[in-house]
Design a protein that fits this description.
Aminoglycoside phosphotransferase (APT) family kinase protein; Aminoglycoside 3'-phosphotransferase, Chain: A, domain 2; five-stranded antiparallel β-sheet; kinase; three-stranded antiparallel β-sheet; alpha+beta
Length: 248
């Protein structure tokens, strides 16, 4: 009999694996609905939806292995990273989905959230003030007008699966919707700056690398508190705090 493996769990959601089936349990039923809708619309490889009975979504496992993991060197080939860039470009060129996603927050909303999180990091002694200030200055380059595209919204490197040099699937679409294209490219390469050139080459369009780097700082500053409060370690080698330190 297949074992039940706990993939990830926190107060908002949990994912279990039983053989080749993943069961996602989410307190926010609307988030699961977004995921199902996005996978149906996305013109890129996605997991097969086996069934959806709120608050549970059952999906089939994707073949291959993750492109990489935050905090670890990626063993995937440059061609695989370029293929990831090309796949993201195909998504961004698709017709817009009906919803605004995580990557679609407005400039004013992001600026306000950045101010709150930076103040929390310094006031609570989580990070040194100079580290926060430097990254906040860098992050502000992401606060600019952008044209909406179909974004994944949480395109972490371990959400992209490869086999050889090809992309077999992209998972975890609960944050998908209209958003900033460079947000997706930044999240994909967060903690893997040496792979940015391969991704951009596969993406095949002129992109502002300074804005991608700004999103690295923005994402890390905004995520540290959430990670700490949900039992994750942003101070682990190669993770969010190291990303922030690399900007000094």
């Amino acid at each position: 009999m297949d074992e039940v493996k706990l993939v990830v769990a926190h107060s908002e959601r949990a994912t279990l694996r039983v053989g080749d089936v993943f069961l996602k349990v989410d307190a926010d039923q609307a988030r699961l609905a977004v995921e199902v809708e996005a996978m149906a619309l996305a013109p890129v490889p996605t997991p097969e939806v086996l069934w959806h009975k709120p608050p549970v979504l059952a999906i089939a496992a994707v073949q291959g292995t993750a492109l990489g993991h935050l905090g670890e060197p990626s063993t995937a080939s440059p061609a695989a990273w370029a293929a990831a860039g090309a796949t993201v470009r195909k998504l961004h060129d698709a017709p817009l989905p009906p919803r605004t996603g995580r990557a679609g927050r407005g400039v004013d909303e992001l600026a306000a959230e950045l101010e709150v999180e930076c103040e929390w990091l310094v006031t609570n002694g989580v990070l040194p003030a100079d580290l926060v200030t430097r990254n906040r200055d860098v992050a502000e380059a992401a606060l600019r007008p952008w044209a909406p595209v179909f974004t994944h919204g949480d395109l972490q490197v371990d959400h992209v699966f490869v086999k050889g040099d090809g992309i077999t699937g992209i998972i975890d679409w609960s944050e998908a919707g209209q958003g900033d294209a460079l947000f997706d490219l930044a999240i994909l390469t967060l903690g893997h700056p040496e792979r940015l050139g391969d991704v951009v080459a596969g993406y095949g369009a002129d992109v502002d690398l300074d804005v991608i780097r700004a999103w690295w700082s923005m994402r890390s500053l905004l995520n540290v508190r959430w990670l700490v409060e949900h039992g994750f370690d942003p101070f682990a080698p190669g993770c969010e705090v190291d990303v922030l330190r690399s900007r000094l």
